[in-house]
Amino acid sequence: MESKSRLVFSVLVLLVFATFTAAVRLTDVSVSNEVVDYQGKFEVEADFSGDTCSVEAWYFIGDYRFARKNVGCDPYNGKLEVTFEDEDDWDNVKCGPQTATVEIYNSMGLLLDNRSVNFSVGVLPVLKFMPSRPLAEKEVRVTLLDPDTGNPLKSQDVEIKDKYGGEPISRRTASDGSFVFTPDIAGEYTLTVKEREVCGDVTFYAKRPLLADGPHPENPVVDEMVLIAVPSGSSVGVKVLDSEGNLYLTVPVSYNGGGNFSISEAGEYTLVIGDLSTKYWSLNKTLTVTDRPVPELSIKPDEPVVGKPMTFTVTSRNEPLAGAVVTVTKPDGVAREYTTSSYGTVNYDAVTSTGEYKVAATKDRYSDVTSSFEAYHAFEPYLEPALPTVRDTIVLTVNDQNGNPVSDALVEIPDTEFMRVCDVGGRVSFNLEEAKEYTIDISKDLFWDKEITVTPYGILSVKASSASLMLGGNVTLFAYDSYENPTSADLKVTDPDGVVRYYTGSQQLITPDKPGEYVVSGEKTNHLGANVTFTVEPYALDVSTYMSQGTYYVNVTREGEPISGLKVNVKMEEVDLDGRTDDAGMASFKISQEGNLTLTVNVNGDNIVYEERIVRQNVVRSYDLVYLTVPLVIVFLITLFAIIAIQLGRAYFGKELKMPSKTAKTPKKKGKKPKAKHDSVLLGDKPEKKRSRLSGI
Prior knowledge:
By secondary structure, the chain is mostly beta strands. Helices cover 8% and strands 44% of the residues. It has six domains: 23-121, Sandwich (Immunoglobulin-like); 126-206, Macroglobulin (MG2) domain (Immunoglobulin-like); 213-289, Immunoglobulin-like (Sandwich); 296-375, Sandwich (Immunoglobulin-like), CATH 2.60.40.1930; 379-454, Immunoglobulin-like, CATH 2.60.40; 458-537, Immunoglobulin-like, CATH 2.60.40.
């Protein structure tokens, strides 16, 4: 009895508890944003009804529980908001579509209610490929686009990885949202983005182009064997779809890539090759199946001309079909039959009038084939001059296929406002003032329209600011068009050593770095080329010379500065001496003979930036004034001392004292006194100072 009472009590407690818990419900669950930032902060809000005093709420993102909260007896307006922001929590949440779930439990751990809401972590970008089908081992440009706006996603860090264990490739999108990479192998790739707003994995493929041989024949008949070959060992499947796109059959393909099939109903079919391959891009081919072989009828030329012969060719499976009957019906309804030769051809020369001609080809066991063509007269235009320039007046003469002038033919130049008809001589004249390609359209009833092109050439001129300049100077190059207006052109400057430099523009200042002749060539699209030359002279040298004590000195300067390292040569009858100027610009040579001298400075242009200077002089002996003056001074002093001694002796011994004399006096001759000997100077030297003369003693 006691046990029954306890059981009844327990049931009553459970009923009361159930009644209590049944009053608590989740009325709504929401996420603060439909799209939340990756590794950002967002809120999950739960709305409750009923008594929540002993209720606990569990919060999930997918299968990961990130929060567990006591709801409390008085949640704010029946709501409880939980923030997802812990960085460690993000390790358990992936980018892309997600589900937020809230579950509520009572104090005994019983699930009372649960609700879920879908949202997205970041947005998956849209990928655009160039080429649209990425090829393995070929460069591909990938552009990331916003899925909502279509705008490029710039400055996004991405990682590309194949599913076969290759090393991941990291890239960053440029300002246009693109990056470039080269897939190493054919197969599946995953592009991963983990930015705050753009996040997730996108799968794409890089494959190889599929080459298939067949089908053979291309246009089979009903129940005829059709052969096709695909890459061997690649598991490339082949399907046949009917005209409505339904699967007609799957072609069995062997390991070596060969397959064959037949179709029992005439109609249009499509071969789908490799649509499930992960290594090759799929390929579609059309297939027409007929009850009987359908010949091919070719009509040449494409624009038949009255009075000109034509050729009809009938083939089957790319082989000539001999013995086929070809029926040609003229515009007036008259028909005539012809038979194809062993080459499958019929030569037709009865195009006598304009209009539509009908052609039919028939042969036993083959389907009939029909076609048609229209025949008109043809224009034969020509221009004078044949290669005009923008300054020329161009005359267009329009003749027909027989060389007769065509009057009233309409001539139009779409790039201009020119529209005129030809005169009775088939002529029309015009001017084209731009150096570009023009299209000229010619038309008239019963004539094939004719389109020709003409490019009037511009007359380019190139000029240099100076025809000759000194090394170190500047020269300006100019390019002018046909009307002497400055125009941008490609300028090619070839220096004396054949080195070429390129410039672009209407004007170019250059500083030549070596002497010699420069050739300037100008080029411009649709223009006749032009040339100009200018010469750069080497630096001029100042040369001075003098002789001293048998040494010949050479001094070389430029604008007062010494020039070192120049090769110097001195030649006389029996002398040939070489030297070089030192840091002071000096070179010296020992010369012991007189005669004509040839001085060459910078021999053979040894230093190309300086001129070769040749000086011719006459060398005579030259003595130093010191050597002439010293003996005379000594004689003078001796004589002076002798006179003084005599005078002193007279004063002491008397006037009768006389100096002894060993020789008789020689009477003096009348006339000029002899001059003192001296050497002549080197021509070109600075004049020597005037020599003093000794008084006769």
